[in-house]
UniProtKB/TrEMBL annotation:
Keywords: Heme, Hydrogen peroxide, Iron, Metal-binding, Oxidoreductase, Peroxidase. SUPFAM superfamilies: Heme-dependent catalase-like (SSF56634). GO terms for molecular function: catalase activity. PANTHER family: CATALASE (PTHR11465:SF61). Its cofactor is heme. It is an enzyme of class 1 (oxidoreductase). This is catalase. Residues 1-33 are annotated as: Disordered. It comes from Roseiconus lacunae.
């Protein structure tokens, strides 16, 4: 609430005139028609008609909280970012969690990846790490992104969400299988944000003041332990408590039970990228821990609920291109595309001055030459000079170039530089099946897949069964057998 609003003991119209009656519209006589001169009524209805801003096209259902990141291990010799500068250093932050495919009113318990978006208000500017609860994704080339997302959304004629559309797409895109297996495993239905891990997912870079770069992956492991809903629980929650996870985080923080996640990184020397057995910039792959062990960095704690959902959560604008000195991107195609498309989406949803929304505003001093645009309300630079270079004492560039150059080579054209052999598509899914899942988890994975594939035509099932067989005969056989049985109701699509 603004200061003026909190000081006002009675209701007013939006320009301050006291409201004498908020129960009865002006009419011609007690039973007569309305009068157009009732500006209070018109203002009320006109504002109401404009209350909704465009929903996020993905990650529309979300909730968030403020918190603190604290460094517990010194990585400053690898990364010059201010927020990692010394053990004990604290940085204010904000987190938003979400499902991906559902509308803003959809159920929290849907089988869907979860967004895990973090905003750090560092002394050098805002750093956003906009990840998921999985270290990988379905695709590795952004040219496929809008097609993939449509398969998770509503069918054009019926406005329904049949499951076969996703299997149709995945059947043609074998690099998706790794993430498909994560999605239909137990971790596809996390109990709430408090009980899931988060990952930066892409390969990023860090560098020090000497210009030495490492490629990195960011991992946030929940200190509450991983907990998931079973299929039955998730379906029940979708009806009984569709906002279960939203409430879970809010109530935990209100009661002082602050959730925490430990941040670790995997670090790859820059030169390893050329010859590493897995493509290090392929978003459908992890880096095995044996090759690149986790190195502890710090702990994030969420300890303050937003005071207003729309202001702080609905208008929170995360963007992977919000970086600070010491942290950079990588050639990961998906990441490069997100660097452009996130701010594009924010300008559409929130307008060009979205940096003024308090949750998005840097906490450190900042000075740009941007001026004007819709809803510019922060002084707009006052009378200060609005072009650069100038001799008017306007803010100057620093001249400090810390980020080492990114070597690039080759002709510009459309490449398939991924190896695209069976090992590329199925090697890590096989490791997941053989090494990570126990017998019970494999059984539940196959059941969840078969339930979801129940409405798929034979040609789509065939395509998917071939992929499962490439991972393991046992996997294909188990799904195939379950497809012969009457299917249970799958968890509704988000
Ligand atoms: P590790 O045995 O060292 O790690 C396996 C990882 O799997 C752990 O991080 C574990 O997370 C996670 N995990 C356990 N159950 C599930 C599940 N149902 N869904 C998703 N993740 C789960 O193995 P490697 O590093 O050698 O990797 C082997 C395979 O494990 C990979 O091919 C990949 O499929 C999967 N994996 C690897 C990750 C990585 O970053 N290396 C991360 C996640 C999965 P936790 O420790 O929290 O229990």
């Amino acid at each position: 609430m603004s200061d003026n609003e909190s000081r006002c003991p009675f209701q007013t119209q939006q320009f301050g005139r006291p409201v004498d009656d908020n129960q009865h519209s002006q009419t011609a006589g007690p039973r007569g028609p309305m009068l157009m001169q009732d500006v209070h009524l018109v203002e009320k209805m006109a504002h109401f008609n404009r209350e909704r801003i465009p929903e996020r096209v993905v990650h529309a259902k979300g909730y968030g909280a403020f918190g603190t990141f604290t460094v517990t291990n010194d990585i400053s010799k690898y990364c010059m970012a201010d927020l990692f500068s010394e053990v004990g250093k604290k940085t204010e932050m904000f987190a938003r969690f979400s499902t991906v495919g559902g509308e803003s009113g959809s159920a929290d318990s849907a089988r869907d990846p979860r967004g895990f978006a973090l905003k750090f208000y560092t002394d050098q500017g805002v750093w956003d790490l906009v990840g998921n609860n999985t270290p990988i994704f379905f695709i590795r080339d952004p040219l496929k992104f809008s097609d993939f997302i449509r398969t998770q959304k509503r069918e054009p004629q019926s406005h329904l969400k049949p499951h076969w559309r996703r299997w149709d797409f995945w059947g043609e895109v074998p690099e998706a299988l790794h993430q498909v297996m994560f999605l239909y495993s137990d971790r596809g239905t996390p109990k709430s944000a408090r009980f899931m891990n988060g990952y930066g997912s892409h390969t990023f870079s860090i560098y020090n003041r000497d210009g030495v770069r490492h490629w990195v992956k960011f991992h946030f492991k929940t200190e509450q332990g991983v907990e998931n809903f079973s299929d039955d629980e998730a379906i029940e929650m979708a009806g009984k408590a569709p906002d279960y996870s939203t409430r879970d985080l809010f109530d935990a923080i209100e009661s002082g039970d602050y959730p925490r996640w430990k941040l670790s990184i995997q670090m790859m020397p820059e030169s390893d990228a050329e010859n590493y057995k897995w493509h290090p910039f392929d978003l459908t792959k992890v880096w095995p821990h044996d090759d690149y062990p986790l190195i502890e960095v710090g702990v994030m704690e969420l300890n303050r609920n937003p005071s207003n959902y729309f202001q702080d959560v609905e208008q929170a604008a995360f963007e992977p291109g919000n970086l600070v000195d010491g942290i950079g991107i990588s050639p990961d195609r998906m990441l490069q595309n997100r660097v452009l498309s996130y701010p594009d989406a924010h300008r559409y949803r929130l307008g060009v001055n979205y940096h003024q929304v308090p949750v998005n505003t840097p906490r450190c001093p900042y000075a740009t030459y941007h001026r004007d645009g819709q809803m510019r309300v922060d002084g707009n630079g006052g009378g200060s000079v609005d072009y650069e270079p100038n001799k008017m004492n306007g803010p100057k560039e620093t001249g400090h170039r810390f980020e080492p150059p990114m070597p690039v080579h080759g002709d510009g054209r459309r490449y398939d530089e991924f190896s695209c052999d069976d090992e590329d598509y199925f090697g890590q899914p096989r490791l997941f099946w053989n090494k990570v899942l126990d017998e019970g988890a494999r059984e539940r994975l196959c059941t969840a897949i078969a339930n979801s594939m129940g409405d798929s035509p034979e040609s789509i099932r065939e395509k998917m069964l071939q992929q499962f067989a490439a991972v393991s005969d046992e996997f294909a056989k188990s799904v195939s057998n379950k497809l012969e049985e009457p299917a249970d109701e799958p968890i509704p699509i988000a």
